[in-house]
Amino acid sequence: MLPLLLFLNFLLSASALNDNAFPENFKFGVATAAYQIEGGWDADGKGENTWDHYTHYFPDSIADKSNGDVACDSYHKYKEDIELLKELGVSVYRFSLSWSRILPQGTANYVNQAGVDYYLNLLKLLNESGIEPLVTLYHWDIPQPLQDLGGWSNPLMVNYFADYATVAFELFGDYVKMWATFNEPQSFCLMGYINNEYSHFAPGYDLEAEGSYLCSATILKAHAKAYHIYDEQFRDKQNGKVSIVLVVNWNEPATDSADDMKAQELGLQFGMGIYANPIYVGNWPQLMIDRVANRSKLEGYSKSRLPEFTEEEIKYIKGTSDFFCLNHYTTDLVSYAYEDDMIGVNSSYTLDKGITTSYNSSWKEAQVSTWNHMVPWGLRKMINWVDQNYGHPEIFITENGWADDGSSLDDPDRIEYTEGYLSSVLDAIYEDNVNVVGYTHWSLMDNFEWSFGYTSKFGMVSVDFKSENRTRTPKSSYYWYKCIIEARSLADDCAVPSESSGRSLATNVFAVIISVILAIYYL
Ligand code: PNW
């Protein structure tokens, strides 16, 4: 009898959740972005941006030929969004400002008061609701007139962005204590510059050999300039923090061969180091400098395709972040790939990086956005890598989330994913002593998922895009997350009974009975 009881008890406790509590000051939230939720694309004087332009002129680039013209209509329904945030119990809401809603032409000579009022109303209501904003200045929606001037490959963009940032700090800075300049330059400086059958991303260029690096260099300088402006003109009065949101998948070597270990370093340096190294350490990662210089030379270029920073620029960019904003979704298995015989055939960032990626077939794969696999331990390794390489910074997980096709309000996989990744965050905090201070789940609600249009859903709240009202309905994951936030721990009793996660009431009662019998037996 005893062995059987012990075995049953083991089985039941093995499925128990991490019962660690989150640190007292840990912040829970959700995230969104302007183009993906606001709609009101030309409302009240808003100017056209590159995603308006791209989706209107190249609808075939989007899976369902849709666009963000109306999206979740948050331009009109932000009060409802805030009700959902309040009910969920979050202390932080991460969202982004639409540059062309505030400056319709992109330039600061004309400010659109209606756009300013929209964000002031949103910020005031958040403030009254006790919800702290984490505001991204740029989540991929450059004003079209500035795109027409060359967009981020034009070095003069540094000044246009600095002017925009100054306007935003001036108008909204009293309400905002956490700023992020850019969301994931890794994504828009790459996907926007590779236009092939797999990548459909505004502005839709095919300039991966050089355009992508020019974009990266401009972004780093623009970020640094905005940071210095805040530091010199606003920090004293407003007392906030400024950062940049960076993303990379964890790169796990496919085998333990020296080549695949090298692939891991290449993947992480070309993926994360490209932005984090200049900001937290100084200059591009040496590995990138050497590799792109060497390949460019062999390709017949007179100098490296990777733009060189002057000593002055290196110093100007270094140290321009007050905390580390990390977006993280998934893990890739990486192998060392392209050998030197590829040189001269094609020049590109992808070939410079020189790795191939694959997945372990045991990893659960998301629907529609099939790049997304459920690998919770990857986040713990990622957080540790950031901690070790960039001087033990304060880390905020600004995005993490799971996609499905939205066919059901019962979303056990999203719960399983989020629980696993949050548990990984707890391990990093308690076992590895890494300073993770907050987490904003992507996303509050289903929204315009870029080239996937409305076919891929990341929300904890479902949005009926067929209804004029854009009716919002919370999913199971919303109630689960609400419970976790209330408990401030991965509490066992938050588990929502469903097919693939959580335990039923009967199982819980059974577990208690077994434990009581065991206790009596030992006493
Ligand atoms: C983020 N990856 O982009 C963006 O910041 C959001 O706007 C977007 O909706 C969300 O993720 C979901 O896609 C990513 O390949 C794009 O690992 C690609 C990856 C990660 C994040």
**Overall pLDDT:** 92
How many discrete structural domains?
A: 1
Shape: globular
Strand segment count: 15
Largest sheet strand order: 1-2-3-4-5-7-12-13
Total of DSSP H or I helical runs spanning 4+ residues:
18
| Biggest sheet record | 8 strands, parallel, barrel
CATH superfamily: Glycosidases
CATH class placement = Alpha Beta
Strand content: 5-15%
For the terminal residues, how far apart are their CA atoms?
A: 16 Å
Main structural class: alpha/beta
CATH fold annotation: TIM Barrel
Query: What is the CATH architecture term?
Result: Alpha-Beta Barrel
Query: Into which percent range does the helicity of residues fall?
Result: 40-55%
Q: Which ligands appear in the coordinates? A: 4-nitrophenyl beta-D-glucopyranoside
Tell me the Rg in angstroms.
24 Å
Query: What are the low-pLDDT stretches, counting only 5+ consecutive residues below 50?
Result: 5-18, 498-512
